[in-house]
Amino acid sequence: MVSKVLTANRLADGISVWLDASGTWVESLQDALIARHAEAVAAFEATGKTAFADNKVVDVNVVDVEEVDGILRPLRMRERIRAEGPSIAYAPGYHGLAGPKNFAA
Predict the structure, then answer these.
(1) Which of 16, 61, 91, 94 is paired with 38 by a 20 to 30 Å CA distance?
(2) Residue 54 and residue 7: Cα distance in Å, rounded?
(3) Contact 7/63 with Cβ under 8 angstroms?
(4) CB-CB contact of 86 with 20 (8 Å)
(5) What are the pLDDT digits (tens) for 63-72?
(6) Longest Cα separation, the chain
(7) 47-62 residue pLDDT tens
(8) In Å, what is the CA distance from 11 to each residue of 18, 21, 62, 96?
(9) Distance between CA 51 and CA 71 in Å, rounded?
(10) In the 8-state DSSP scheme, what is residue 54?
(11) CA angle 23, 61, 6 (to 5 degrees)
């Protein structure tokens, strides 16, 4: 079975979030809880439905990930963009989920 994580968008601000081991929605994919068997995926789905019903998150999905050298990486491009931020210049001052970057002049 492919490893999976639970992702969504936080209802308050639309930021991409992932479920961690304590049941908290976190902004870093690297902190996400990983499901490696069908029972864990079923628990993810139930948790996602509850969080959606409680108006905490929207667009809840279980997504495939791979772990390479200890780093989680989504298999689908859509999920990579959600994890890493926009792939193009989006808006002045916005640098994706990684935060501000220092650019040489």
Answers:
(1) 16
(2) 16
(3) yes
(4) no
(5) 999 999 989 9
(6) 51
(7) 999 999 999 999 999 9
(8) 13, 20, 17, 18
(9) 26
(10) T
(11) 30
